[in-house]
């Protein structure tokens, strides 16, 4: 009888001790949620995050506030969230950078993959190879031929070493066996300006940074990354259509939380984010940046992260790219 009573008391104690946690999770969220963007305000990632945050606020019954913590190639914002309480009140806009961050930064205080739990996929934006509107090349094969006729003479611009645009152009060079010089800039805007001004003949960039110039004819887009053509660029072939492999991926964005965040909270956020990004209003906002909404699948997130880590690691190592 004593053993039975002791067992009963133990069971009741476990139930009682679990009640506060269960009640807290059931009531979540009880205050505003912070969504950290590890890039400056005004860019495509920031704008997409704000569209999603606004759409989340209604269903959650609490404000989702975007907070920009830029610096260190997204390291500053990542480190802040990695060291935040795993309670669902601090989220991070992550994505493509997480797959290459460990290769680019050798002394991180956190693991860009293991320090976070994936919550939901959000959107993707393809990268493009662009030339000035009056450039003599109208197709990618014409540009490839010109580069092969003058090895080491042509150059391309990017937003900086190790950026997705830089890696895309380096993969293009490798796959097409080209000798083209990389001219890095501190951001997309100055890179675009020099291509428009004729100082640099071509560039790789995300679609959001080129749409305004392409629609006005100031830039020509010769190829786009992705498994299929962008719905916003139905006349622009993919690199794959020209036989350039390993460029089926695009810049993608997701939401993650600190490792250890309770699964019920992650599940609730996944559901709300999924509803937000697939709503017609948010998809219309995404279209302004050439972004396509993604289903919130956590499995897709993990698969893409691992695939891209394998895809880009060799390029980063062969170029000796490092942010340290």
Keyphrases for this structure?
single chain; 324 residues; alpha/beta; D-Maltodextrin-Binding Protein, domain 2; six-stranded mixed beta sheet; five-stranded mixed beta sheet; 11 strands; 19% strand; globular; disordered N terminus
Report on this model:
The protein has 11 helices and 11 strands. The protein has helices spanning 2-27, 44-60, 75-82, 96-104, 140-149, 164-176, 188-196, 211-215, 263-277, 280-287, 298-319; strands spanning 33-37, 64-68, 90-95, 116-125, 127-132, 155-158, 181-184, 202-206, 219-224, 251-258, 292-293. It folds into 2 domains: 31-121 and 253-313, Bordetella uptake gene, domain 1 (D-Maltodextrin-Binding Protein, domain 2, 3-Layer(aba) Sandwich); 127-242, Periplasmic binding protein-like II (D-Maltodextrin-Binding Protein, domain 2). It is α/β, with parallel strands linked by helices and 324 residues long. 44% of the residues lie in helices and 19% in strands. The chain is globular, with a radius of gyration of 23 Å. The longest helix has 26 residues, at 2-27. Strand 6, helix 6 and strand 7 (181-184) form a beta-alpha-beta unit. Helix 2 (44-60) crosses helix 9 (263-277) and helix 4 (96-104) runs parallel beside helix 11. It has a 6-stranded mixed β-sheet, sandwiched between helices. Strands 7-6-8-5-9 form a 5-stranded mixed β-sheet.
